[in-house]
Prior knowledge:
Shape: globular
Mean pLDDT: 87
Bound molecules: ligand MTE, molybdenum atom
Number of helices: 12
Radius of gyration: 19 Å
CATH architecture: Alpha-Beta Complex
Number of strands: 12
Strand content: 15-25%
Amino acid sequence: MIINKLADIRTSEITPEHIYLARRDFMRGTIASGLLGAATLSSSNVFADSSYSAAENANKGPEWLNQKIAQAKADQQKLTESLTPYDSVTGHNNFYEFGYDKTDPAKKSQNFKPHPWQVEITGAVGKPGKYNLEDLLKGIDLEERVYRLRCVEAWSMVIPWVGFSLASLLKRFEPDSKAQYVSFVTLKDAKQFPEQKSVLSTIDWPYREGLRIDEAMHPLTILAVGLYGKTLPNQNGAPLRLVVPWKYGFKSIKSIVKIELSEHQPQTTWNQIAPAEYGFYANVNPTVDHPRWTQARERRLPSGLFSPNIIPTQMFNGYAEQVASLYKDQDLKKYY
Ligand SMILES: Nc1nc2c(c(=O)[nH]1)N[C@H]1C(S)=C(S)[C@@H](COP(=O)(O)O)O[C@H]1N2
Ligand SMILES: [Mo]
């Protein structure tokens, strides 16, 4: 199996970002000369890493988005960890609208329609409105961000997102002095999300998340529209999802249709279901355990029976230098 084979490749043997960027430059050339096609790509694929060729077969978004993604600026910060292979990033997901098994999102999201898409921005802003995704992204330059993603269930990945800072978007809507929090809502559509019609579901749909305004405005907080240089696969939250790399994965809400600025802390899905287990803040913290398991360690994917790949969890998921000051007066055991 590809995933197991990739698990054996050591970090020192590959330079993923380098390969990735070189590959992307190659892709740009191909798009420009109109040669894009599976046959051309596989025969000219000089890079051995199969995760990149897997990305070539990704579902293609609309042309305006493909073009924007192809022009994304490369990440300046270099993570030393290997990227998680494309197959794991897109084959092991949490997206409960499609089911509770890790492979359900990939299997059951193939008919999901992320285009056309509208996003409403409302609440404590000077200029509220509802926009087509294409109009929302007008004038916004995309960038690549290679981030760790740490799920509260103690597995993690390293994902090369393509997106833009949430702050750059919010500022255009002119948040006012009452804008202390930002909340996000996923699409509600039982025709497209099989679990939303399930009577047994513990989740009160739609999925909701939220951030404090300083967290939302932090330069590490992005909205992603792609990964691995391609449009976001449906299972990863197409067409637009939040990524907050220093918080547990459940904060990074998928397939967003509404962003609301408010004065009071919003209700969020997992906090509402089990407040003793999932806090509003949900900062990655190896010293505050989940009531039912330790948070001191994580399984970095791909991980198998014989190479579980267990690594220590870092404070704020390794982003302490950038974000610790946001919480300097806060007891992180109380505000978990
Ligand atoms: N709408 C929605 N967003 C969601 C979820 C979900 O079930 N529904 N799961 C969250 C959880 S628990 C995690 S770990 C991440 C997983 O993102 P990934 O599948 O792209 O790795 O998405 C988060 N965003
Ligand atoms: Mo998660």
